[in-house]
Design goal:
- By secondary structure, the chain is α/β, with parallel strands linked by helices.
- It folds into two domains: about 180 residues, Leucine Dehydrogenase, chain A, domain 1 (Rossmann fold); about 160 residues, NAD(P)-binding Rossmann-like Domain (Rossmann fold).
- It is about 35% helix and about 20% strand.
- The strands form two sheets. It has a seven-stranded mixed sheet with strand order 9-8-7-6-10-11-12.
- Strand 11, helix 10 and strand 12 form a beta-alpha-beta unit.
- The mean pLDDT is about 95.
Length: about 350
């Protein structure tokens, strides 16, 4: 989302066309699956803490529901676009289908920056989003969830607004809720742990022991934190992680060649995954440029941030010893980069 010239939906369609050719899909099926079934774009007026009214743009895309209710998160991000949401919804359709879950693909978002919003303002955005979508989401039609910069608290506000309007209890209309309010055990860890479980199996196929590997991570939000944790538990050694610095409005890579202490690092991290640079220095971390994570001399790369991170512009910087790229994010690798990665024989999860 950082590159205005980049269109994530065009990339998703390019990926689809390649798979459709491989599967020899008929023209009707191609036409149906290449575009979203339905999409919603709407305004959310919010009275801010200073008394002024600010209007936010919200989205929901329902790509396909032929296998079941649409499923997918709601992202809060200042650079959100309808094309990003379209791509994410399409990828959700594929993910549910590949693992044979009876759900379709959906995704939502709001153009906003939670860093600069109070809790009350974020609650009003959540309730406003649900008021716009209440007739088109629900346990049998479209089930939202948290995504980038949204949490279980955001889901509770949305659920409360939905139930208030409908006048009934619908605990199944949204996932990612706190466990005490009907959420699922393990949901918070699921994505990060799932990435590492697949890496463990890939390494087994390749005849490599996890304890003989090192890794570099991009991002330090929910996915990356739990992936780092489990990767260490299976014996791997993470040596670097990058994250966004809200104060400096840039990203940095934090490197410790003798291994990252995940618990200590999360102790100096804010709720958005931003690591305190000064405190990290005190703990012995080198502070490198944000894109240095991809250049590290490691065995595994974990891109766990946003889409469009490994591109034709930086794929040549990947370290010579990298054997596996484990995609913890949605669409982090572009088709142009995929070609180079394939030529190098790097295994992509």
């Amino acid at each position: 989302m950082s590159d205005k010239a980049f269109n994530p939906f065009a990339m998703a369609q390019q990926q689809f066309d390649k798979a459709a050719d491989f599967l020899n899909l008929d023209s009707g099926t191609r036409e149906l699956l290449r575009e979203p079934m339905r999409e919603f774009s709407f305004l959310i007026p919010v009275r801010m803490d200073d008394g002024k009214v600010k209007v936010f743009r919200g989205f929901r895309v329902q790509h396909n529901d032929s296998r079941g209710p649409c499923k997918g998160g709601i992202r809060f991000h200042q650079q959100e676009t309808i094309d990003t949401v379209r791509a994410l919804a399409m990828w959700m359709t594929w993910k549910c289908s590949v693992v044979d879950i009876p759900l379709g693909g959906g995704k939502g978002g709001v153009i906003c920056d939670p860093h600069n919003l109070s809790e009350r303002e974020q609650e009003q955005i959540c309730r406003g989003w649900m008021r716009q979508m209440v007739r088109n989401v629900g346990p049998f039609t479209d089930v939202p969830a948290p995504d980038v910069m949204t949490t279980g608290q955001h889901m509770l506000w949305m659920l409360d607004e939905y139930e208030k309007i409908r006048g009934e209890r619908y605990p199944g209309m949204i996932t990612g809720k706190p466990v005490g309010m009907g959420g699922s055990l393990g949901r918070t860890e699921a994505t990060g742990y799932g990435v590492v479980y697949t890496v463990r199996e890939a390494l087994r196929e390749m005849g490599i022991k996890p304890e003989n590997t090192t890794a570099s991570f991009q991002g330090f939000g929910n996915v990356s934190q739990y992936a780092l944790q489990l990767y260490q538990q299976i014996g791997g050694k993470p040596i670097s992680v990058s994250c966004w610095d809200q104060h400096d409005q840039t990203s940095y890579t934090f490197r410790k060649k003798d291994g990252i202490d995940v618990k200590a690092l999360t102790g100096i991290t804010d709720r958005f995954g931003g690591i305190d640079k000064g405190k990290a220095k005190d703990l012995g971390y080198e502070i490198l440029p944000g894109d240095a994570w991809i250049e590290q001399d490691v065995d595994i790369l974990f891109p766990c941030a946003l889409e469009h991170q490994i591109t034709d512009a930086n794929v040549g910087k990947i370290g010579k010893n990298v054997k596996v790229i484990a995609e913890g994010a949605n669409g982090p690798t572009t088709p142009e980069a995929d070609k180079v990665i394939q030529q190098r024989g790097i295994f992509v999860v």
